Amino acid sequence: MKESSARTRILDVASRLFYEQGYNSTGINQIIEEAEIARGSLYNHFPSKRDLLTAYIQQAEDRWFAELDKFLATLKDPRQKLLGLFDFRIERQLRSNFGGCLFSKIGAEVPKDDLNAFELVYHQKERFKIYITELLQQMKLSEPQALSQEMLANALFMIFEGATAIASISKSDQAIRDAKKIAESLI
Amino acid sequence: MKESSARTRILDVASRLFYEQGYNSTGINQIIEEAEIARGSLYNHFPSKRDLLTAYIQQAEDRWFAELDKFLATLKDPRQKLLGLFDFRIERQLRSNFGGCLFSKIGAEVPKDDLNAFELVYHQKERFKIYITELLQQMKLSEPQALSQEMLANALFMIFEGATAIASISKSDQAIRDAKKIAESLI
DNA sequence: GTCTATAGCTGGATAGAC
DNA sequence: GTCTATCCAGCTATAGAC
């Protein structure tokens, strides 16, 4: 008796390997082997490797925001939630041994002609930017700011993305901790 | 009579293909073909594909900073130079059709065990951070800032990196233009 | 330096039997 | 759903002749 369906196991194994080894460097054969499913079964659920990639990104986005919500659930103050974003990143980067942002990795790796993948990566980034924007709107900004609300959201978003990239390259969470300090002085 | 040496042509072609198609997706065969050199000749100059990657990153770093210096040469004011960094990025991203940061791409693409490549990528990032820091030190900061000099350099660095990543994913220079505006309000 | 041939492997994908 | 066999293309790299 299988604990999980074939589809679930394929996607779970593929997700782990895509993130750890990269999409291009992960072969169908390895996925089949580690997921312990049949070759035909994989192609039954996912007609091509690209379809597997699509499912991977979409599931990753769903989980990413679900985990983020959960992580911030105990915090009530929007400002604390905004700063908590960086703690969330630190926690995830430590857990993945500084593997970097899943979505940015795909964006950097897939060929330019895979517009579908780019679209999905872009979707996650935009959604996260909106996430930041909404938290900012919930804050009562004490004083007139140097930056507009929109630009402030942009700034936090970019600092977050930049810090994640640097943390992955330097294999250290220092950049994200610095980013949090910068965010503290901005909001 | 060859206009350029075999080594130069190999590296030029490989550089173009690595950036446009990705390192993993570019085969030795294609490099040989487009560079119009013999198979044995490539392996004579570069014993393995990894050696070619090393030379690629190193040459790219040298050129990157040389082009940056040239781009900023006409500007005398350090603040204008700092803001010019973003114009430099915009210009490069437009020229490459939003291919993203060459070094970050490699960082996202190569397997984790290629420590050499990571080291080289990290080197470029650190050098650029120092570049920003030195420009900041040349500025006479008018008022006491909310952020220390070091943190300000960090912030500019991360915004720069984040904006580049977003520009590549969104295929638009809007993020970098926003980043410049943010930088203007910070310094 | 050039050329060709080829080893040895792995890639994604298909087909057929059960 | 499972299994195995296989196609064909591509990969990195080596060897040998010129």
Can you walk me through this structure?
- The structure is a homodimer of 187-residue chains.
- Chain A has 187 residues and is mainly alpha-helical.
- Chain A folds into 2 domains: 1-47, Homeodomain-like (Arc Repressor Mutant, subunit A), CATH 1.10.10; 53-186, Tetracycline Repressor, domain 2, CATH 1.10.357.10.
- Chain A is 75% helix and 0% strand.
- Chain A is built from 9 helices and no strands.
- In chain A, helix 1 packs across helix 2, helix 4 (49-72) runs parallel beside helix 7 (115-138) and helix 5 runs antiparallel to helix 9.
- The longest helix of chain A has 24 residues, at 49-72.
- The interface between A and B is large, with 42 and 43 residues.
- The structure holds a DNA duplex (18 and 18 nucleotides).
Could you give a short description of this structure?
The structure is a homodimer of 187-residue chains. Chain A is mainly alpha-helical.
